[in-house]
Amino acid sequence: MARQLLQDRTPAAYAGVEAFARRHSGEGAGALAWLALGYAHVLDHDYRKAVEPLSRAKPHAGEIGDYVAYYLANSYLETGRNPEAVALLSTFDKNFPASLLVRDAHVLYANALTANGRAKEAVRILEQDREPVRSDLELALGRAYAAAGDTGKAVAILRHLSFSIPLSFEAGVAQADAEKLAPVAGLGSPSFGERKNRADVLARGKRFAEAAEAYRELLREATPTDAPAIQLALAEALYHSGQKREAEHELETMPASSGEIAAERLFDIGEIQRASNDDDGFLRTVGDIRQAAPTSPWLEQALLYAGNIYLLRRDYDRAIDTYRELEQRFPGAPRAHYAHWKVAWLSLRQGRTAEAKQELEEQIAAFPESAEVPAALYWRGRLAEEDGDRPMASAYYQKIAERFPNYYYGPLARERVKNLATGEDPPHYAILDHVPPLSTVPALGDATVPDDSLRVEKAHLLENGGLLDFAVRELKAAAEEEPGSWLPGEMARMYEDAGRYDLAVETLKRAIPNYFALDLSALPRSYWEGLFPRPYWPDLQRCSSANALDPYLVASLIRQESEFNPAAVSNKNALGLMQLLPRVGTGVAKQTKLKHFSPPQLFTPSVNLELGTRYFRSMVDQFGGFEYALAAYNAGDDRVREWQSAGKYRDVQEFVESIPFTETREYVEAIMRNANVYRQLYGTP
Questions:
Q1: Global pTM?
Q2: Does CATH number 3.30.160 belong to domain 454-531?
Q3: Residue-level pLDDT at 445
C-alpha cells in the first residue's frame, strides 16, 4: 500500500495507508506507515498535511527516527513553524549521530537559525560541512553570511555557486541574491573567466538556450584572441537550442582563424548541412576541412560521416576509400577500428573475397579488443567454410563460442560447429591468439548480504514502507561499512520486489558491464534472472502464443525497448512496455476491435502486450522473418525494404550485419542475443 501511495498518491492510496497506520498506531509498523504517509504529502508539497502523520510517527519511530525527525522539521520550516523546527533539529546530531541525513539536517537547521536571527550560529554549523560541495548547503551558507552582515563573504560564496554549479536549482537563486548584495558590498561584476566557466558548464549540461545567452554577453567583451572560440561556442549553443539561422549567421561572420578553431567551424557548418539533408554540401565541406586541418580530430569525425553517406547511397567504392582514409590518417584514433571493419565488410559484400579475408584477419590482429572482432571471426570462418576448409572454419567458430558465448554470433557459431562435425580438434591458428581473454570477471565470492548490519536492517525496514530511495541509500552506506560484492544483487532484489525491473536491470548492467561475454555458470542464477527478468509473464505468454511468437523473443524486445517499465515514455512519445506510438496503438486497437481504447491505456501492461504483440506479428508476416521485423520495429518499414533491395544476401545474418544504421543493427543483434539467453535460463516456455 505504501509503495502504491508513493507512486500514485491517489486519495484511495492515502486512505489505505492511513487506515493501516491507525490500526497499528502503537507499533513500529504504524510509525513506518505514518512516515510513508507524511513523506507522500511532502512529495505533494502539502507540508501542512505532512505535519500530523509525521508527528504521529515520532513516538514509535525507532530505527527510522532520523527520517521522521528530518521530514517533520522540514515540514515545520515550510509552514512557518521555525521555533519547532529549531527545537527538533538542535538535538538531531545527538539523537542520530550515524544518520545519513546529518548534513541535510544541518542545512535545515542553519536555515531555521538564520530565519530566527541566529545567522552566526548557522555559519559555524555550515562551515564545518562544506566538503564535498553541495549547492543547497552553499546557498544556505551564503545567505547566513549575508544575514550576519558579512556581505563580501556572502557574495563570494553565492557567485561561486552561481558560476561553478550553474546546473543546480540553487544557482539561479544564488545569482539573484549575489546581484542584490554586490553593490552593498562595493563589489564589481563577476570576472570574464567566471562567466565563461558558467557558460561552458551550461553547454555541457545541454542547457543550450541559457548557454547561448551567456556566450553572447561574453562575445561583447571578448578580446580579438578570445572572440573566435566564444563565437564558435555561441554558434553551437544556438544550433543545439534550435536556432539554426542564428547559428549559421555566427559561423559565417566569424573572423578568419586557423588550426582547431577553423576545423571546428567547418565541421559545425557541415553538421548544419547534414541536418538539412544537404549531403553534397557536407561532402564539399569535408574537402575544406581536409585542406584546412588535415590532422584534426574534426576531420576524423567528418570522414566517418562522409563514409556513412556514401554507404547509404550504395556508392560502396567511395565508402571504402573514405573509411580507409580515416584509418590511414588516424591509425590510433577512436574510430579507426570501426573504419577498418567497414572496409572489410564492404569488401566482403562486394565479392572481393581475397581482400575481405585479409582485412578480416587484420581486424583480429590489429584491433583484437574492438567490438567488431566477434563478427570478424564469424565471417572469416564463413569464408573458410565456403572454401571447403572445414578445420579452419571450425577453429574460428570455436573461438567465438569460447570467448563470446552470449554475443549475437555466439549461438550462430556453436550451431555451425555442430553442423561441421569434423570429429577432431581443429588445428592451431596463431592469429586467434591475438584475441585476449576476458579482462575482468566479477568476483562474487562474498555476495552474502550482511543481515546483521544495522544499516541493512534499516534498509529492509524502509523498503517495507515503500521508501525505496531511502532504502537504497542505506544499502549503499552499508556496503561502505561491510565490504563485499553483495550490494548490486541486493539492490536489484529490492527493485524487483518493488516492480522496478528497469532499475534492477540497470543496476546489474552497471555492476557487470560485460555480462553477455560470460558463461551462465560465471554468475549466480539470481543475477541472470535480474538481468533477464520475466515480469507480466502470464500475459506475455498468452499474447505471444495468440500471435505465434516466441515469448522469449517478445521479452527480449521489451527488455530492449523499456526494460519492463510499463510507464516508459520515449523522446518520440512511444509508450509502455513495447513502446508503441499512440497512433500505432489506436490503429491496432481498431484491428483487434478493442472497445473504448485510448492511448493512456498503453501504460497498462496487459493492453500494451496485446496490441504490441499483434503489431509485431504483422511486421513478421510482412517481412518474412524476425530479424527483418525487428529492424522495421526500430527503423521503419520503408528503410527495411530499401535495405533488402541493396543486393543479394547469403542469409539473414548477412542482412543484419549489413544494416547501415549502427543503432538498428545493434538493436536487432541484442534482441536475438538476449532471446537466446532467455532460452538457456528458463528452457521451453
A1: 0.92
A2: no
A3: 62
